[in-house]
Write a structure and sequence with these properties.
Helices cover 38% and strands 23% of the residues. The chain is built from ten helices and 14 strands. The strands form two sheets. Strands 1-7-6-5-2-3-4 form a seven-stranded mixed β-sheet, with helices on both faces. The protein is globular and about 55 Å long. It starts with a strand and ends with a helix. The relative contact order is 0.15.
Length: 329
């Protein structure tokens, strides 16, 4: 198995374009937010080139959050129309090049049910995943990362998960959360069922075993995890509610921080979007849990699709510790 390496937002676009241009048979992209703009045009150009030379290209995009996050330049009266037009323009351009595009989350039980929060980009055997970077302008200006590796087995499994997400969403169904083992750890997949998050459950289980914890997310933890972490020697890094983007984000962070009586140690102005937990165990070992999950209870309750990597790989943990030291602390 190839080793995962941390890729920062500034390098992610260039590396992803190179991987797509080198792809011979498959490219699978899954994102919460996907939009064509100055920062992402090169990625979309590469997807079109790949499809036109015969590579099977599949893109799954969350319909609600892509609509919500795309910036609009028109007045508020034309706000909805402009956003819909921009979403359609991106989809039409990809479709015309032969790319298979699926708007995900059209059949959730509620507006916030069955959202696809997973992020991955797979080009043949190359994988970028287990981080939080979306494909639109703002994502490249946040404190975030993706983990990158070239591994045929993991790429094959995630590609099968990609197809399962697309097909189950088309059928209006979810599937059980599950895990599969890899060297030094496991991959955890939340399949979109209500009240079923294997990632959140594992985050709680590891927290109960840890002597010390470092928590990093855009949000304050909630639910059972928050209670466990408050009883543990935990350093919390999440966005100060006053610097958060959007009214709902600010309200969510403020209320959850007050309810659980948790303060953040994150002091930077730049929006924190990375999501990982480092668990320092009693036996001296360290476990990392990294991915798309924000470690809030509502994601599992509402059936959000997520992906995470659990690992004891010393190299990955060292990279996360360096990221923590250089970009977060």
């Amino acid at each position: 198995m190839a080793r995962f390496r941390l890729v920062a937002p500034a390098a992610y676009a260039d590396q992803l374009i190179a991987s797509i241009d080198a792809a011979r048979y498959r490219v699978n992209i899954l994102a919460l937010v996907f939009n064509e703009d100055k920062a992402t045009r090169g990625i979309i150009d590469a997807l079109c080139r790949a499809s036109q030379r015969g590579v099977t290209v599949s893109v799954g995009l969350d319909i609600y959050f892509t609509f919500k996050e795309i910036g609009a330049d028109a007045s508020k009266w034309h706000y909805v129309r402009e956003r819909v037009q921009r979403m359609r323009a991106t989809k039409n351009r990809l479709n015309e090049a032969g790319v298979h595009v699926r708007w995900l989350g059209q059949f959730g039980a509620t507006l916030f049910s069955r959202r696809t929060h997973t992020k991955w980009s797979i080009a043949d055997d190359e994988i970028f995943s287990f981080g939080g970077i979306n494909i639109y302008r703002d994502a490249f200006n946040q404190i975030d990362y993706m983990l990158h590796a070239a591994d045929s087995r993991i790429a094959e499994r995630l590609s099968a998960e990609h197809e399962l997400i697309i097909n189950s969403d088309r059928a209006g169904r979810a599937y059980p959360s599950h895990t599969f083992g890899i060297k030094h750890g496991a991959v955890l997949i939340d399949g979109g069922r209500l009240f079923d998050s294997v990632i959140y459950r594992r985050a709680c289980s590891l927290a109960e075993q840890a002597e010390r914890v470092v928590y990093v997310s855009q949000y304050c933890p909630t639910g059972r995890l928050a209670s466990i972490l408050r009883r543990t020697d935990t350093t919390f890094y999440f966005n100060d509610w006053r610097r958060a983007v959007g009214v709902l984000n600010r309200l969510h962070i403020r209320l959850s921080s007050l309810i659980h009586r948790i303060d953040t140690s994150y002091k930077h102005e730049t929006y924190l979007h990375a999501k990982f937990i480092l668990y320092y165990m009693l036996d001296g070992s360290i476990v990392a849990l990294s991915g798309s999950h924000n470690f809030v209870a509502s994601g599992g309750i509402m059936g959000t699709r997520e992906a995470a990597l659990e690992t004891r790989d010393a190299y990955v943990i060292a990279e996360l510790e360096a990221f923590l030291r250089d970009r977060v602390a």
